[in-house]
Amino acid sequence: TPTSVTILPSGRSFPATGKDSILNEALAAGIPFPHSCTVGTCGTCKSRLISGKVREITDAAIALSSQELKDRYILPCQSLARGAVELDVADLADMPDHPLVHTDGEMVGKRGLTHDILEVTVRVDEPFEYSAGQYAELTVDGLSGPRSYSFATGAADRPKDEFTFFVRRTPGGEFTEWLFAEDRTGTRLGVVGPFGNLWLRPSAVPVLCVAGGSGLAPIKSILEAARDDDVRRDFVFVFGARSTRDLYCLEESAALAGSWGTSYTFVPALSEEAPDSGWSGARGMVTDVLAGLPTELLTSCDAYVCGPPAMVDAVEQQLRALRPEGNFFHADRFLDKK
Ligand code: FES
User: Fold this and answer.
1) How far apart are CA 286 and CA 121, in angstroms?
2) Strands annotated E in 125-263
3) In CATH, what number does 101-195 get?
4) Predicted-complex ipTM score
5) pLDDT at residue 91 in the model
6) pLDDT tens-digit series, residues 23-57
7) Is the CB of 38 under 6 A from ligand 1?
8) What is the pLDDT of residues 243-264, one digit of tens each?
């Protein structure tokens, strides 16, 4: 018999049949429940069971500590509701509350950003709101599955019916090879959104942003929104790329400093740039750049990180080595889209 799951402290609730995971039932009801892997390994969906019973699909012990298990934490992506359930999902209290919209749209523009990254503009039939850092799923008829792309702008004056995305070419990937093969302007596509947990949590501590490759999109979006919302916090933004030909939006990223109320530091870093190329900026991996930042910053900041999984994992390890506890690390792992 269908019952419901109630989320505290917000008190929002949604119907639960117990036939699908609590996470999926929340998402189906349009609730932006925090999640990432959906298979019980990342711990992002972790919530405390206040009352009621759940049945585990897989053993939650992989992603939860023994203390968390004792404290009745569960993984909603791996739990079925058994009757009415109350869950404490602290992160959801401040979470942006945008209804999930399913609409269609049309590619109305494209611009090359680097040799393998395109900016694509999509005009949607039904305009919708998102928070900077979130993403949408795009589906093109005739191509398999939806692809997730982050909204690449967070400026307050952005159009509500036109979204830009940064798409990196994946050699051999069905979607991106199709997109890069010829001018696809005018193509119709399905758009569902917004999704995602990479929005700027309210706080006063410094913000560390780290982006790699096309992971720049949500970070740029968060920075633009912070500028336009006049967020009074110190920001450090480290952007990692291979060589100068992989750099883009450099002027936009640097120019943010001019309109910032507090301190804003932008560090582009190249990992494979030829020694004699004349590049005078930072060299090395983003983790090398972070190692040179004040420990005080690394142990007090909130971190927002987006890029290839190996980069995100390396940054998480580096920060957690300094600070094992705390909900300060927010990330989106960009998998190459086939
Ligand atoms: Fe990763 Fe549930 S979403 S553990």
Assistant:
1) 29
2) 135-139, 147-150, 162-168, 188-195, 207-212, 235-241
3) 2.40.30.10
4) 0.99
5) 67
6) 999 988 878 788 877 888 877 888 999 999 999 98
7) yes
8) 999 999 998 888 887 777 788 9
The two beta strands, 135-139 and 101-112, are unpaired
Distance CA 104, CA 82 (A): 36
Edge-to-edge strand ranges of the sheet holding 162-168: 147-150, 135-139, 188-195, 101-112, 117-124, 162-168
Listed by start position, the domains of the chain span 3-93, 101-195, 207-333
The reply to whether ligand 1 has any atom less than 6 angstroms from the CB of 89 is no
Question: 1-16: per-residue pLDDT in tens?
Answer: 678 999 987 788 999 9
The CATH class that applies to domain 3-93 reads alpha beta
Regarding the beta carbon of 43 and ligand 1, being less than 6 Å apart is answered: yes
- Alpha carbons 253 and 91: distance in angstroms, whole number: 28
Q: Measured between alpha carbons, how far apart are the two ends of the chain, in Å?
A: 40
CA of 190 to the centre of ligand 1 (A): 26
